[in-house]
Every structure is written in C-alpha cells, then in structure tokens.
Design a protein that fits this description.
Elements: E1 2-5, H1 10-21, E2 26-30, H2 36-41, E3 46-49, H3 55-62, E4 67-71, H4 79-93, E5 97-101, H5 112-125, E6 131-136, H6 147-153, E7 155-158, H7 171-183, E8 191-194, H8 202-213, E9 218-221, H9 224-233, H10 238-254, H11 261-267, H12 274-282
Parallel strand pairs: 1-2, 1-4, 2-3, 4-5, 5-6, 6-8, 7-9
Helix pairs in contact: 1-7, 3-4, 4-5, 8-12, 9-10
Length: about 280
Amino acid sequence: MILLTGAGGRTGKALLRALVAKDAQVRAFIRNPEQADGLRALGAADVAVGNMEDVDSINRAAGGTDVIIHVGPPMHPQEREITKSFVEATKNSGASRFIYYSVMYPILRDVRHHSLKLDATEMIVNSGITYSIIEPCRYMQHLDPIWPAVLETGVHSMPFNTKAQFAVVDLEDLAQATAKVATEAGHEFATYELAGPQNLSQEDMAAAISEVLGRPVRAEALPLDVMAARAIEKGASEDRVNQMRIMNTHYDHSGFRGNPNVLQWLLGRPATAYIDFVRRLAAG
C-alpha cells in the first residue's frame, strides 16, 4: 500500500492516476472528506481523512503502508515540521521508503518556497530512513488557469518578464516518472531533477500557442501588484502572496532553466514538448 499525501490537489490527483495505472494500491490522505468519493473514482483503494499538522492522524494513515509519497501544501511556512511528521510516521509504520515531492533547485535560498524544501531535504537525508526525492520544474499546466483569457484576449500574461526562460514540464510526465520511482526498485537514496525538454520564454510559449490556434497570441508581463490582487481575491493568505512576489521577482531576472535528461531516462521516452501540451489543451 502506498500512502499519498495531498491527494486531493492537482499534483496529487495526477500522481494517483499514474500510480493506479501501475496497478499500485493507493491510500489517499486528504483533509476534506468531501473529496473521498472522487478519489475513489480515480482508483484510490482507501482514503484517510486527516490533517498534515495532526501527528495522530498522520500515524493512523501511515499504518500498514510500504511507501509514503509526501506532496506538501504549497508554500506552507511549516514545510519542514510537516515533512518531519511524515518521516517519523515512515519510521513508526515500518514503511520501506519515503518519497518527497520537492522542487527543482531548492538551493535558491532567496526564494522561501525553495529554501523551506531545502531544509526539509536536509532533515530527510539525515533522518536515517530510505528515501527518494523528486525535484520538479515549473508545470506546463500553469497555462490552464489563464487559458480562457488567452483565448479571449490573445495575450499570454504571467508575472515575470517575457524573455525569462523556464524548462516547463508536463505534470503528466512528472506523475508517470514519480509512479515509476515509487513502484520499482533501484531508486533508493536518489534525488531526481525533472525538467521539461525546452527552456522557453513567455514569448516562445505565445508563439507555440499562436501556431496551435492559427491566430496571433502575444506575450505580456503581468504586473506583480495585479497578480497579488488576484491571489487575494481567490483567498490566498498575506504570507503566501508575499512569497509569490519573492518567487516571481526571482523568476523575472533568472528564469528557471533545466535539463530533461533525467526525466526522459525515467520515462523511457522523450518528454512532452510544450506545443504538444498546448495541442492537448486546445483539443479539450
């Protein structure tokens, strides 16, 4: 049995589908019990309702599992403490391996979202457990929420300059690679940087969208104040909005570039190209 935390989120659901496709038995760990039926419909063999800040619920969920995959809440200030609770649950339950879903380049200390994961990684490495660490780059799926606006306005707009490059990666590829790591031997004590096949700017992405749609789409940097206001409207905390500002300021001048070799080795095939992701999105 594999315990999958954060199973109700976008990443968790993708991982669940990929694990089920590998015939894995998955126990989905969620906070909201209303998500249980939907996750069972995706193939979860069991659902554990709990709270990542409640050690007792974590230990109950971990009982009888062989592998724990931890997908933490995004930008949570208690990242290290929450992760440590799951590491301790790995020890207490007798699970054979802990898989930490982190972020590419946690060494970026000026970006708290990254540095918190570096602290958690250091704790995991020093914990004495058997672990694997997944370090994904920025998702291609960041296009999803702005897709209606792109179709309506012909503008691709994200909160960093239009020339900064990102090795954007398809979440479906990441999920398949993580499922392989979780269900096959040979990945113990491995840390895998998983980046997409091209380093692309907003201008490159807009050009790919233009090609797929057959009409012009241009790139435009979204002002950080506009990004912050929209996040607040959606209920983001002040702390999270501040971290989003710091992260996107870093991306504005440095981008987020990477290399696809490790991902493609795990997949056993070429990683999904951005234009193919756009074609899939446009096809509905």
